[in-house]
Amino acid sequence: xxxWLVLACCLAPLSCFLNPNVSYVPNRIVxxxxxxxxxxxxxxxxxxxxxxxxxxxxxxxxxxxxxxKGDAGGGNIGEIYYNxxxxxxxxxxxxxxxxxxxxxxxxxxNVFSSHESEAKQFIDALYTVMGR
Length: 132
Fold this sequence. Notes:
By secondary structure, the chain is of the alpha+beta class. It is 33% helix and 30% strand. The protein has helices at 2-11, 15-18, 32-41, 45-48, 116-130; strands at 21-22, 54-57, 61-66, 76-81, 85-92, 96-102, 107-113. The strands form 2 sheets. It has a 4-stranded antiparallel sheet, covered by helices on one side. Helix 3 crosses helix 5. The longest helix has 15 residues, at 116-130.
């Protein structure tokens, strides 16, 4: 049983690369920061792997604190800079995946959600903060 669980956790992030894109046109929203923070911190950890425990939406980037809250250094900090984002792709298998790609098409970060509406809200919020 453990082997199957470990295998599923290892293969789940790869599912974004193997599945067809879902066509979606983003809409502007009023409070994008709250949506981005909520969706990114509430990803299913069994699928996403390392989920940020804190997210801060800045004027030029999204800052993420990964690891454990109690770490002496506050965990690892990652950032997604809006000017580096080339494309945002929505994919679906058993779970919804928002794939954030850089200007060259290389994956920067994947956001997972169990609900289509939440994944689409995340894309709406991301495009709103990016000013697109």
